[in-house]
Design brief:
The protein is of the alpha+beta class. The chain contains 6 helices and 11 strands. A hairpin with a 2-residue loop joins strand 6 and strand 7.
């Protein structure tokens, strides 16, 4: 019945929305995609396009995408690409490999399990069509160039993936380096860009900019999480990254593996706390049947030792079996990010 309802929802969504819908409405504060709110940095944003597509070729799991851009003085200073599920799932969606990459400026997994997770990542993206580019972004880019809006050869991107058993959102904010005083890029491949790890480490100004973007992502993450749960209210105070007020640049790539490592300490604490309660119950039951306090104590003590070993072993085995089991699900993006 659940699967039938999901397919019906997907069919209704596909009927209600065209494959790609271009609009040009003004937006500020936050914007909703498939019921998930996305906080927007200060300024006036324009909705450049929306599309509804199946997730990984699965029509029963439709996705909605939207592109919003901020244009100042004929230059696109920033844009955001949002992907969110249009119909609920029943077993989670999955994370992105960007959560754990070690060849980008920053990647951190905040929490993850088999069905939910959240992560943040910072990367540079080359402005070029790629096989996995989202059609809605390609259309928006063509429209922007047709309007004469200047765009950089490389964007600085802060991304977020949040998922639970039913829903998912992937939000990627792209900032134009030229809006922060940097000159036009040279159009190099991704790995040879001045914004790649090697170029940033050799240039203090770029290092400060990347540090500012990392700090900005840390401040934006709670707002993105609140929007995912549709809890944004009132005006959002989300400024742009500020390399002037940001502290020193990170000295190392910050990464975390998908899946928490099994914690023996947590398992031991749970074992002890449960055995205190369980042993009291065992002692009462044994005394009820034997009427002998010494024999009852011996039975309860033996059971406490044996059951503690079994419980602790079960906790460790369960943690090892379930750690790192989050699925990987990649969405179409904008530009070349690897």
């Amino acid at each position: 019945m659940t699967r039938l309802w999901t397919v019906l929802c997907a069919f209704m969504v596909c009927l209600a929305a065209p494959a790609v819908a271009q609009v040009d409405s003004a937006v500020s504060g936050h914007y909703s995609v498939a019921g998930k709110q996305v906080p927007l940095p200060a300024g006036q944003w324009r909705l450049l396009g929306r599309e509804t597509v199946p997730a990984a070729g699965n029509a029963a799991r439709p996705l909605e995408r939207a592109v919003l851009a901020r244009v100042e003085g004929g230059r696109m200073d920033a844009f955001v690409l949002v992907t969110a599920n249009a119909a609920p799932a029943d077993a989670g969606w999955g994370m992105t490999r960007d959560c754990t990459r070690d060849d980008i400026h920053f990647a951190a997994v905040h929490y993850v399990s088999a069905v939910d997770g959240a992560c943040t990542f910072v990367n540079h993206v080359v402005s070029a069509a790629a096989p996995d580019s989202a059609p809605v972004w390609l259309n928006a880019e063509r429209e922007a160039r047709g309007r004469g809006w200047a765009m950089p050869t490389t964007w600085l991107m802060a991304g977020f993936r949040i998922t639970d058993r039913r829903d998912v959102v992937d939000v990627r904010f792209h900032f134009n380096p030229e809006a922060f005083g940097f000159g036009p890029g040279r159009g190099r491949p991704w790995s040879e860009s001045q914004w790649a790890q090697g170029g940033v480490s050799a240039d203090p100004a770029r290092a400060r900019m990347i540090a500012a973007l990392v700090h900005w992502a840390a401040e934006a993450a709670p707002l993105v999480e609140a929007g995912f749960r549709n809890r944004l209210t009132g005006p959002q105070r989300l400024a742009d990254p500020d390399p002037v007020r940001t502290g020193p640049a990170p000295t190392a790539n910050r990464t975390a593996s998908l899946g928490d490592e099994p914690s023996w300490g947590v398992g031991l604490l749970k074992t002890i706390s449960w055995r205190v309660i369980g042993t009291m119950g065992d002692l009462g039951v044994a005394y009820l049947f034997t009427g002998d306090p010494v024999l009852s104590g011996g039975l309860a003590f033996t059971g406490a030792i044996l059951n503690s070993m079994l419980y602790f072993g079960h906790e460790v085995a369960w943690g090892s079996a379930t750690a790192g089991q989050a699925d990987i699900l990649e969405f179409a993006t904008a530009g070349i990010g690897s």
